[in-house]
Amino acid sequence: MTRQIAVVAFAQTDHRRSTEESSEVELLMPVLHAVLRQTGLRAADIGFTCSGSSDYLAGRAFSFTLALDGVGAWPPISESHVEMDGAWALYEAWTKLLTGDADTALVYSYGKCSPGSVRDVLTRQLDPYYVAPLWPDSVALAALQAQALIDAGDTDEAALAAVGARSRADAAANPHAQRTGPPPHDGHVVRPLRAGDCPPVGDGAAAVILAAGDRARELCERPAWIRGVDHRIEAHALGVRDLTDSPSARLAAEKAGAFERPVDTAELHAPFSSQEIVLRKALRLGDDVRVNPSGGALAANPVMAAGLIRVGEAAARIHRGESDRALAHATSGPCLQQNLVAVLEGDPR
Question: What pLDDT digit, counting tens, does each position of 83-111 carry?
């Protein structure tokens, strides 16, 4: 790549179980103002805007057009939207900036899971002919994956519980996290997964600003340069996949350049503790890599924003000088069906 693109600012909400008193626009506005304030930019200075959200969560078609009120679509702006997690909106914005059509981009995403049953909503991602009519929800499918890992000897319930406990402990230093402290010692939600192995249901939003070349250095003291991004997809049918592995995550990491040099930090979008086990193996992350220092999706998992938050958290650590080379991962679909990997680096210190 001849043009270098960096994340220069990141902001997110304080994630909560419910924000029923706020609309999507009211949820977004403070985040958009915060991310612009970090750079000193105005909305009119942004060359491209891209968002990620889900009409299924909102319960109405083209719901993202209402959220544009938070950005301001007049005078006319260059804008796009993906019906995906905001990490995929970042992918589109990164591509846009690589073409030279813009020098700055605003990427944001949001999700309100509180109005309905997100476990039921996510069944609409499944094969509409053979699987979706059976209504297996997201937790049941994750439990299927966890049991496959246990049967293969890759983990056990104690190891899964340790992942959840570590995530919540790390989240204690994250003021935006929804869950912190020791996980409850209760029964299974769906065997072998307990409450500590599963993500919280909550509402939230996030935003990042991308900038190219010298513009990035003007806006941020230590930009988080995106060295590569790639996205790969597993087969839709669960029955033809090995649920104990993630070849798509491995291939995305390879194409993004993650294996060229070691990373010191990894922000993994693993909504279930069992998925961190899969991703650590697929992404070749050793014990020397700090995984999910923010607490990860087990501490806060606003659907459609959690993946973008992983990129933002990784970038923020580079901004603060706490990381030099970080991997960020986002997923969508059941059992890690879709995987996006980004590699970020800071300038040498």
Answer: 999 999 999 999 999 999 999 999 999 98
